[in-house]
Amino acid sequence: MSIESNYDSIDSEESIKSINIIKNYPKEKRYTLAILQDIQKEFNYIPRDIMVSISEYLNLPLSDIYSIATFYKSLSLKPKGKYIIKVCNGTACHIRGSNKLIEEISEMLEILPGETTEDGLFSIEIVNCLGACALAPVMVINGKYYGDMNKEKVKAVIDEYKGAI
Amino acid sequence: MNDKCDNKKKILVCCGTGCIANNSIEIYNKLNERLKNSDISVEPIIKATGCNGLCEKGPVVKIMPDDISYFKVSTNDVDEIIEKTIKNDITIDRLLYFDTNKKEKIKSHRDATFYKPQHKIALRNIGEIDPLIIEDYLEQDGYKALHKALFQMSPTEVIYEVEASHLRGRGGAGFPTGLKWRTCSKYDQYPKYIVCNGDEGDPGAFMDRSIMEGDPNTVIEGMIICGYAIESHKGFLYIRDEYELARKNMEIAIESARIHGYLGTNILNSGFDFDLEIVRGGGAFVCGESSALMASIEGNIGEPRAKYIRSVEKGLWNQPTVLNNVETWANIPPIILNGSSWFKEIGVEHNTGTKVFSLVGKVKNTGLVEVPMGTKLNTLVFEIGGGIIKDRPFKAVQTGGPSGGCIPKEHLDISLDFDSLNNIGSMMGSGGVIVMDDTTCMVELARYYMEFLSEESCGKCTTCREGINTMLKILTYITEGKGEIDDIDLLIQLGETITEASLCGLGKTSPNPVITSIKYFKDEYIDHIINKKCSAGVCKNLTSYSIEESICIGCGLCKRKCPVDAIIGSKKNPHVIDIKKCIKCGSCYSVCPTGAVIIGGAII
């Protein structure tokens, strides 16, 4: 079976994209994580169909791909939001009040950490130390750092993202 | 025009993660744009550098050769900097660093109490060079050590030099680096591999990120030298998923090292081949453990394995492998270039050289600090760190991350080295130093670490997987006021079992934060369990706030700050907290100028 024939849940344009990502890598087991990370970046999650394709391409059992996709935190089997709010809960942030920050954002978006808003725009994730402890408490939205956060600041930032939509 | 302008001025804009978050890229761009359109005949060189260490006061802009450092610079200051400092050599006082120890403004950052006791080896180039320009690194004696190793030394001599320096691995365990290399060199099974552990996961530690971002070439050079010493031709850099900038800078540095002939085949016509590949981590804390990291590179899940056979014999793909951490690699070029005897003079016996610490938490000067091994904790926290925020009482520091332990104030004069820290039940770890004051609850902190570790346990060993969860449950009960006095002994027993029966270093050390906090702060546990009181005001169920009538001056600050209007009182008269409305946020406690707000135990 060719890897093209696996797709029923995603459309053809997406399947072409995923095939291009997969074929970018040599057929070696050690590239499993890298392929999955590229897929995650492109689709915001790991669709099942694509896992099947990867398993065929690398000639590995599907269970191996599944085990990697569920072991590593940067991979997700459920679609994540367009904007991923990563709130740091490293020790420095923790003792400078990141818990309050997480509560605040949860309340604002009406979702819990790990969840995505119904409109698919925001996800909240709690991450361990972003290595920006001087900015504690810190959060990152799609790669942009927001340091020294408090109730007022976080509201302004999230409103800005809401406004940009 | 001023004569001095003929000496080419250099403007160094810090572009580490900390400063970038505070818009340093915009400052860099604006400087470039303004200078392009200005009438200065000699154009200053503007460089985007790595992290200067004092991230708290960023963005940092330095002007050389005048050696002026400006802190907390904004884009609005750019024109003034050009007009005054660049064109007319006038220092702008407003932007200078205020030294909280000396109580004065300081022109060059080198004179600040934050920098003075420091000795930079691993961080030597960071903040001074543009990490993306290999010529900058070459100017600072870059790749000279590689030259020396390839053309003046045999592989055995290289290993001897590293061994003689007594360098110990900076990743946590402190294993002698030279011994690791020597053991690996003895196996004649090829290919051999070199690995750089850049999966910095300890919360509160960011030195590896800073080195990879700010001076990637030193890591590359260290790895090539090791490759030459142990006859390996291939290295891997495993970089944490969250560290995007580090990965990007590393990629660019590897590419330019290839172009300049430092990587690839026949390096500098020596006949030696070596190349590097970057592997992106997947966001699993356990992958910082060496055998888990290697499993991850191989394309497996990151589970540690038993180490009856060390990775120097059977590591990556069961081949002999040398794995060192980023900071360790950064130490290699200076050791080869200056010799082991130079290195040995720094630090203390058996703990030579320097160590980078990330000083974070409730300390005034948060940042990266590199000091000789053996520096006193006191010096680190109170001199370099400038003491505790708002001058509150010091309670403890946590070193070694989730695998380390807390150190109370009785041990403030401890020497910061591998052995002394181990002796009191903590550990060096990767060098995170988290400073805590009286508003940090030690029981809650122990609970926090168990929560962290319960999520990050890979699940292979039952004791780690289930034991940590059980400890977490008990600690959560205690912080909620449901603890019982026997819980303390139960925690200790569980801790012993986890240490005894878990496979990897991370599992074995996981009970440390709980065990050391029981050792040094048992009173706090008892307070939580018996008196139902959290004196730090962190555990909400065990906290109540009240205002001491005799101290309150009736300024009304607390009333204005209270988010739920729970404080009543008129101006200049003592205020009262309505405990039914109070949500125990602690705002009143932190704003009260006279200390009239008092933390009490649970109101039952």
Please provide a written account of the structure:
The complex is a heterodimer of chains A (165) and B (604). In chain A, strands 2-1-3-4 form a four-stranded mixed sheet, with helices on one face. The radius of gyration of chain A is 18 Å and the shape is elongated. Helix content of chain A is 45%, strand content 11%. Chain A has two domains: 3-71; 83-163, Glutaredoxin (3-Layer(aba) Sandwich), CATH 3.40.30.10. In chain A, a hairpin with a 2-residue loop joins strand 3 (139-141) and strand 4 (144-146). Chain A contains seven helices and four strands, in the order H-H-H-H-E-H-H-E-E-E-H. The N and C termini of chain A lie far apart (42 Å). Chain A has helices spanning 12-23, 32-43, 48-58, 62-71, 91-95, 98-109, 151-163, and strands at 83-88, 122-127, 139-141, 144-146. Chain A has 165 residues and is an alpha+beta fold. Chain B folds into five domains: 3-111, Glutaredoxin (3-Layer(aba) Sandwich); 134-344, 3-Layer(aba) Sandwich (Rossmann fold), CATH 3.40.50; 348-437, Ubiquitin-like (UB roll) (Roll); 442-529, Up-down Bundle (de novo design (two linked rop proteins)), CATH 1.20.1440; 543-600, 2-Layer Sandwich (Alpha-Beta Plaits). Chain B contains 22 helices and 21 strands. In chain B, the strands form seven sheets. Chain B has a five-stranded mixed sheet with strand order 14-13-17-15-16, sandwiched between helices. Chain B has a four-stranded mixed sheet with strand order 2-1-3-4, covered by helices on one side. In chain B, strands 9-8-7-10 form a four-stranded parallel sheet, with helices on both faces. Helix content of chain B is 37%, strand content 15%. In chain B, helix 16 runs antiparallel to helix 17 and helix 16 packs across helix 20 (512-529). Residues 1-6 of chain B have low confidence and may be disordered. In chain B, a hairpin with a 7-residue loop joins strand 19 (567-568) and strand 20 (576-577). Chain B is globular. The longest helix of chain B is centred in the last third of the chain and has 18 residues, at 462-479. Chain B starts with 9 loop residues before the first strand and ends with a strand. Chain B is of the alpha/beta class. At the A-B interface, helix 2, helix 4, helix 5 and strand 4 of A face helix 1, strand 13, strand 17 and helix 16 of B.
